[in-house]
Amino acid sequence: MKPRYTPPIHTPKEQLDHRLHTLLHTRRNTMCRYFQSCGLQSGHPRILFFLHHEPGMTQKALADTLGIAAPTLSVSVRRMEAAGLVERRLDERDARVQRLYLTAAGEEMQSRCDKGRLFMTEAQFADFSDEDIHTLQALLDRMIDNLDEAANTLPPISPDEGKEDSQ
């Protein structure tokens, strides 16, 4: 195990925040490595998950659900089609509408993703007692509530804000 960099932070809250960041970064990297070993690219597991649970979504509905732009999703869907994981079918009632479905290979890949998520969960909490898990869950719930409350105190973002930076 490589030594972890600890930035010059001084308060216990800053140290904990850094540890949470490290946990999330490590978790994301581990899951990405697992999914890459299955032949998936970033974002594909979420697409598989939603199409498994909501077969027949339109591309627009899926993009909205994932919180990504339709053109971004379009690239992923084309790649997944080429890999034989996803197929488009015309809507039975409206031939102008295409719906997305997992193929048999897509369902198999979704099953592999589920196994990866289970592996991650088991590894992450390997030596945790039930009491540890309940305590951590309560603390994380409080943190989520605190962040939600803090976000509600921020001024609203205007539609034009940030456009100058991107031009």
Description of the molecule:
- With 167 residues, this protein is mainly α.
- The protein has a single domain (26-150), classed as Winged helix-like DNA-binding domain superfamily/Winged helix DNA-binding domain (Arc Repressor Mutant, subunit A, Orthogonal Bundle).
- The protein has helices at 12-37, 44-53, 59-66, 70-82, 104-124, 130-152, 163-166, and strands spanning 57-58, 86-90, 98-102.
- A three-stranded antiparallel beta sheet has the order 1-3-2.
- α1 packs antiparallel against α5 (104-124) and α2 (44-53) crosses α5.
- The protein is globular and about 60 Å long.
- 12% of the residues are buried.
Can you give the helix content as a percent range? 55-70%
- Got a strand count? 3
Strand order of the largest sheet: 1-3-2
- Quick one: CATH superfamily? Winged helix-like DNA-binding domain superfamily/Winged helix DNA-binding domain
Biggest sheet architecture = 3 strands, antiparallel
Residue stretches low in confidence (pLDDT < 50, at least 5 long) are: none
Determine the CATH topology: Arc Repressor Mutant, subunit A
Given helix and strand content, the structural type is mainly alpha
Overall average pLDDT: 90
Name of the top-level CATH class: Mainly Alpha
Q: What would CATH call the architecture?
A: Orthogonal Bundle
Distance linking N and C termini: 43 Å
Integer tally of domains: 1
What's the helix count? 7
Order of helices and strands: HHEHHEEHHH
Rg result = 20 Å
Q: Assess the beta-strand content as a share of residues.
A: 5-15%
